[in-house]
Design brief:
It comes from Methanofollis fontis. This is DNA replication complex GINS family protein. The structure is a single chain. By secondary structure, this protein is mainly α. It has 2 domains: 3-128, Methane Monooxygenase Hydroxylase, Chain G, domain 1; 154-234, Ribosomal Protein L9, domain 1. Helices cover 52% and strands 8% of the residues. It contains 7 helices and 5 strands, in the order ααααααββββαβ. The protein has helices at residues 3-15, 26-43, 50-86, 92-95, 100-129, 154-166, 219-227; strands at 187-192, 199-200, 206-207, 214-218, 231-234. The strands form 2 sheets. Strands 4-1-5 form a 3-stranded antiparallel beta sheet. Strands 2-3 form a two-stranded antiparallel sheet. It is elongated and about 100 Å long.
Length: 238
């Protein structure tokens, strides 16, 4: 197979949107040509001579041209396989342009695509058949029986926790930031959203707060933190 003949086939494949007619022995004859050139290269005493350079250039040109032909034809075969799976129009005459290896790949691709799509569709159907989990699962107690979780009453529980937290007096020496301000001052209960550097409140106390702290602050200080979304004002309803 001459290099010029291979280049003509490349041109036909690029210009035509369909598989072109190629000689049945195209690839086998091209492989034989490559083997012959390789033998000639090995028989040259100086492979870096001008003769050796010409042979090597011819060898690589044939291989690259063959690879281009295969690439162009594989793209068209994949397009035909997709049309076959989707039930689209397929030119039967174009299928006849495939050699044995190409036709085997075409059938294998069609089979694999069909199997994969079937598996994916069945998987989706199985997932949809599974009932969704309960919106409010019942808590499980390992040792003692417990009451199911109630949907309502969440605000009452929070208020009870806050009352319990502030029913105990904390010495100033232990946690200065959580000590109540002086009597008579307006205070607010806030839930801190993020850590803050130590600061002095209007009551003269130093507060070093961390995210999740539930503290009482002078009303003015609490208002500033709430306006900046650093803390959340907790209002107790009695």
């Amino acid at each position: 197979m001459d290099l010029d003949d291979l280049r003509i086939i490349v041109w036909n494949e690029r210009e035509s949107g369909k598989l072109s007619d190629i000689p049945p022995d195209l690839f086998s004859s091209a492989r034989r040509a490559l083997e012959e050139i390789e033998g000639e290269i090995q028989g040259i005493a100086d492979p870096f001579s001008e003769e050796g350079a010409v042979l090597q250039d011819r060898y690589h040109s044939i291989r690259e041209t063959l690879a281009t032909i295969v690439k162009l034809r594989l793209k068209k075969i994949l397009r035909l396989a997709e049309a076959q799976i989707e039930g689209g129009y397929i030119d039967r005459e174009e299928l006849k342009q495939m050699n044995a290896q190409e036709h085997g790949m075409f059938e294998a691709v069609c089979r694999e695509i069909g199997d994969c799509r079937q598996a994916l569709v069945d998987g989706v159907l199985l997932e949809r058949a599974v009932p969704p989990p309960a919106a409010h699962p019942v808590p499980v107690c390992e040792e003692e029986p417990c009451e199911p979780a109630e949907e309502d009453g969440g605000e009452d529980e929070i208020a009870a926790l806050i009352d319990e937290a502030f029913s105990k007096s904390i010495p100033d020496s232990e946690i200065p930031s959580r000590a109540p301000p002086a009597e008579g001052g307006a205070i607010s209960i806030v839930l801190v959203n993020e850590a803050l550097p130590a600061f002095m409140g209007l009551d003269g106390r130093t507060y070093a707060l961390e995210a999740g702290d539930l503290v009482t602050l002078p009303k003015e200080n609490a208002g500033v933190l709430c306006e900046r979304n650093i803390a959340l004002n907790i209002r107790l309803i009695k």
